[in-house]
Amino acid sequence: MADTASKRTAAPVGPSPLVAPPAVLASSCCLILMFTGAWTCDYAVLCLASPPGDYLSIRGTSLAAYLLFFLLLCLAARRRERRRAAVYGLSSAILRRGIALGCIGLVAGSIALTTTAPRDDGALLALIFLVKSVGPPLSAAVLLLFASMAPARASKAAGLAMTLAFLAECLLRLAFELTPLDGEAALIFGALCQIGGCCATSALARRHGSAPDPLDDRHAAAQPGWSRKFLVKALACIAATALMLGYLRTGASPGNSVGAIAAVTVFIAIAAGAWCLPNADTRSLFAAAIICVSGAFLLEPLIDLAAPRASSVLADCGTILFEILIWVISVSLVRTRLRMVRAAAGARLATVFGHFAGAVAAALAANAGAQLPEASQATSLALVFVYVVLLLVVARDFPLFSPADPAAERAASSPGDASGEEAAARMLSAAGAPAPDGAHRDGDAASAGATPVDEERYWADPCRALADRFGLTPRETEVLEQLAQGRDLAFMEEKFVLSRNTVKMHVRNVYAKLGIHGKQEAIDLVEATRRR
């Protein structure tokens, strides 16, 4: 029995289907199809129906669809559905059914909008709801696809794919404006794009291996990757970032040519960064987005004197960067949760809520602008202030905004990367066990004779690589370094000046994130990472 178990443990683990470049490319295509289709359908609905409140109505119906989907997921979890699903829950029953029903609603709503004219606002909003119903399950599924990639690879792929989706939307709008059908053609094409995204996502999901359904409450005993405080902070960052998007995308468009120029500019910058930089720095991405938007708002007269409509290009660049940032944060959030389907749905719900809040702010500013012309500019300045505070205060010690560690990318790009990602997959479906006090091993002998700097790097480099790969907080990284050296709880209490319960909590979180169950496994994992 023991020999069988050891052989099973020592067996090489094959690469995940979503690790290979073709699968990463396919996941990026799913994202492009999803967002291009959704944005094109929004444009078509505004052209065809002129709903009350224009963009605000679309945001409201979208929020209702995402809220309904999230509530259904919570209800399914409470009823303890016990089904088998593909890894990360991509083939869970409710997700498959949601995508299928969403496609049916999309087709029905599109046909009704192109062939009939609703007589009242209620019927029109119901049809818009049907068109938007495919968004929640599809976006959650695509988000889960990106959560299965290595962090750096997911960030780069998301940046390039999101920028291409913006560019495709602008070019499609220019093309549809030249056709006699305009709105009808846009709605049909947008619906086909989303249906294609559903088919591609389902095909990728079927290629994944089998794992327990994340909707199953049997995982409730496992420790989540983040504490509740960091979870709330992540959702708040997503909603606050989406608020700016909702504000910027509401109202008069600066023109499709301006958006295309912005998309090309950002694509070149993202492609250059992906090629030259080993890792994606989320804080730098956030700062670049704020610089673009604040520059467009605050320096508009000066910038437009130098180049006409340059401020609009800058604002659109900020919009694209914020959209990329939301997706990257959402991927990182989902990767650290054990109930990943609900985490994905919750992240998308927070995003859409922010869109709706931004649309409300834009509508209120427009209404107030009729009596007070400075209202719109004042609202823009207030939003810029909020984002500067968010960057300086909220994101200061947030693990998502910590600078990337180059050593982590070197470890992630090594030949052992595939098995590391498989370990991440196992970690996300395994229950974390309490940290045992046994299994001591003094790691000081491994670095005997080394200088203090070499000794520090001997432990810090592999632990930081693991922290970047599995999303450890700075404190959890320090705890991992002590575990790797065989330190016990009493030593860490004295070193970090923390209570026994706090140290135990950090140790449990480290075990849950790394997918291990004891100190010896932590030591072995750090040693294996150092050898790579």
Automatic annotation (TrEMBL):
InterPro entries, alphabetically?
Sig_transdc_resp-reg_C-effctor, Tscrpt_reg_LuxR_C, WH-like_DNA-bd_sf
Segments of this protein annotated with the region Disordered: 432-452
Provide this UniProt record's keywords sorted from A to Z. Answer: DNA-binding, Membrane, Transcription, Transcription regulation, Transmembrane, Transmembrane helix
Q: Name one GO biological process term.
A: regulation of DNA-templated transcription
Q: Which GO terms describe its molecular function?
A: DNA binding
Q: Which Pfam families match?
A: GerE
Q: Which residues form the HTH luxR-type domain?
A: 465-530
The keyword Zinc belongs to this UniProt entry's keyword annotation: no
Q: Which residue ranges traverse the bilayer?
A: 18-38, 58-77, 98-117, 123-146, 158-176, 188-209, 230-248, 260-278, 285-307, 313-334, 346-366, 378-395
This protein is called LuxR family transcriptional regulator
Species per Swiss-Prot/TrEMBL record = Muribaculaceae bacterium Z82
Source organism lineage? Answer: Bacteria, Pseudomonadati, Bacteroidota, Bacteroidia, Bacteroidales
